[in-house]
């Protein structure tokens, strides 16, 4: 059973080899799972969908959980181990495509690319001049979180002669850029603040009114991490009141719901959480997903098996 629609080639590949049940296509998915779950031997889910403890009860014959994605943070691995259910994921390199998207959102927001596209399509160009955007090269880029994504982004923006500083829980000894311990200080310094850190209790809501006010009315926010890191009502208010210049957002607090206020703003570039959504990445995940399932049903260990203490 697949718990959600996946990348279309992945679904097609699964259906070529297995009988795939699709509860989301039924009028009552919960009832469908109750009716069909007793015969299911493997469940496919995703990093964002997960598989929680109570869900195991609907699948008494479950042998394998296969995650389409690298992270199993919202899979109950302890319950899986207690029930003897194998769990596999699809490890891949996500930093590069997410950093690419962050750079794209930065350029799109600062150069007003999406506004320009709408301007041309509306037939306005012959009658009026399009308002100017902001230059990107040579500006200040503040990066919140200097893990793999943050470091890959730093390489990209440095190639555009941007100055880079970063914020995180601690300085990294080998980082070639200045560390700023106070997030508000970093926001005051930068022209674009880019969020690339993990969502934790410490980072939830950390980009608040004070940080946005420090960013100021001539600077931009880009978020490719998790929506809940930014206080979304505070961001909307800052944008509506002109206290920041604009934003590029790939993530939101209650996905896939996007606040209607954001949909109405020309100075906000919106994307549907596509940081890792490249054909190359999805094809690699498909290959590893199938390898895991084939191995399990042939009686061998999944090549990308995840242990509860991994």
Residue share in helix: 25-40%
What is the CATH topology assignment of the largest domain?
A: Rossmann fold
Describe the sheet with the most strands: 6 strands, parallel
Strands of the biggest beta sheet: in what spatial order? 5-4-6-7-8-9
Rg calculated over all Cα atoms: 22 Å
| CATH architecture classification name of the largest domain | 3-Layer(aba) Sandwich
Q: For the record, what is the CATH homologous superfamily label of the largest domain?
A: NAD(P)-binding Rossmann-like Domain
The tally of domains stands at 2
Describe the structure.
The chain has 2 domains: 105 residues, Rossmann fold (3-Layer(aba) Sandwich); 176 residues, Rossmann fold (3-Layer(aba) Sandwich). Helices cover 35% and strands 12% of the residues. The chain is built from 11 helices and 9 strands. The strands form 2 sheets. It has a 6-stranded parallel sheet with strand order 5-4-6-7-8-9, sandwiched between helices. Helix 1 runs parallel beside helix 11, helix 4 crosses helix 6 and helix 7 packs parallel to helix 8. The relative contact order is 0.14.
Name some characteristics of this structure:
3-stranded parallel beta sheet, 310 residues, 2 domains, alpha/beta, 6-stranded parallel beta sheet, 11 helices
